[in-house]
């Protein structure tokens, strides 16, 4: 689609309207392809996504352009590789901790939202990721852009209200969910599905800061993560994915209740995966 955008920008929106009224792009942060059931994972982590895959198209040869959010999302919105769009670095402070430096998306790299909005489409983004704030330039083309909108339930409430306001105009929506990002916070029942006990799991009360400290200690060789502890971490991750899959189900219900189900193209993907010591580290953005 984005290759098409660059080759035929004047025709993209018009041709899309012949097929759909709306497009919804769902980006699930840190979702590993090999932990999705329809890609062969033995645990039933994603029944809703599996159903979408069964009734739609499943891409089996797709790769993230980066191992962390910011450059990957820039590629999703522009169809360009990081070496082309130049969004490579996140926010960093100077030694005095006052001046901020970061990469932003070049104005000469049009986003799909810009192309669509210039042709009369209404574009909205409901996100929950600090790497996607307005300073990045990712908001170009969106009439509504909420970078830090809260958990999935809040994003879906905002989406539902927005859909009720746009009448019959064509629309593009970008949703970015963070529930599969550490710190993993599944419900008790989601961990039980996979034979675990959330209440006794050593990572139950881990905060984002705790995970960051663990990641640094592991990368420096200051500590290790025995197999049993790694299994507990993966159980929490899988439980978090299962919980988020339920939010995708809510999204489908919203589209049906709004009468948009048969008029909307829905794409579900991830910005990057998550490492569990396959290459000696945990987390993401390490390489």
Quick overview of this protein structure:
This protein has about 290 residues and is α/β, with parallel strands linked by helices. It has helices at about 1-5, 10-15, 45-55, 70-80, 80-85, 110-115, 150-165, 190, 210-220, 225-255; strands at about 20-30, 90-95, 100, 120-125, 145, 170-175, 265-270, 275, 280-285.
List the helices and strands and how they pair.
Elements: H1 2-7, H2 9-17, E1 22-28, H3 47-55, H4 69-78, H5 82-85, E2 92-93, E3 100-101, H6 112-117, E4 122-126, E5 144-146, H7 152-163, E6 171-177, H8 188-192, H9 208-219, H10 227-257, E7 264-270, E8 275-276, E9 282-283
Parallel strand pairs: 1-6, 1-7, 4-5, 4-6
Antiparallel strand pairs: 2-3, 8-9
Helix pairs in contact: 7-10
Name some characteristics of this structure:
single chain, 287 residues, alpha/beta, five-stranded parallel sheet, two-stranded antiparallel sheet, 9 strands
């Amino acid at each position: 689609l984005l290759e098409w955008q660059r080759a035929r920008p004047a025709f993209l929106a018009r041709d899309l309207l012949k097929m759909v009224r709306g497009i919804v792009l769902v980006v699930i942060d840190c979702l590993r392809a090999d932990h999705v059931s329809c890609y062969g994972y033995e645990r039933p982590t994603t029944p809703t996504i599996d159903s979408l895959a069964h009734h739609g198209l499943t891409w089996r040869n797709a790769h993230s352009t980066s191992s962390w959010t910011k450059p990957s999302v820039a590629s999703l919105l522009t169809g360009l590789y990081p070496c082309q769009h130049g969004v490579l670095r996140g926010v960093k402070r100077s030694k005095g901790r006052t001046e901020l430096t970061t990469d932003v998306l070049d104005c000469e790299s049009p986003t799909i939202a810009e192309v669509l909005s210039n042709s009369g489409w209404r574009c909205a983004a409901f996100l929950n990721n600090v790497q996607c704030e307005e300073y990045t330039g990712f908001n170009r083309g969106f009439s509504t852009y909420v970078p830090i909108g809260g958990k999935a339930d809040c994003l879906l409430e905002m989406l539902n209200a927005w859909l009720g306001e746009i009448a019959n105009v064509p629309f593009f929506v970008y949703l970015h969910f963070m529930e599969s990002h550490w710190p993993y916070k599944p419900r008790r029942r989601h961990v039980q599905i996979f034979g675990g006990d959330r209440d006794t799991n050593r990572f139950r009360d881990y905060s984002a800061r705790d995970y960051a400290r663990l990641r640094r200690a592991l990368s420096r060789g200051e500590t290790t993560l025995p197999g049993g502890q790694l299994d507990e971490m993966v159980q929490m991750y899988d439980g978090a994915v299962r919980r988020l899959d339920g939010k995708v189900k809510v999204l489908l219900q919203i589209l049906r209740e709004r009468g948009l189900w048969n008029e909307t193209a829905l794409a579900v993907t991830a910005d990057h995966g998550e490492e569990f010591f396959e290459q000696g580290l945990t987390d993401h953005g390490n390489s």
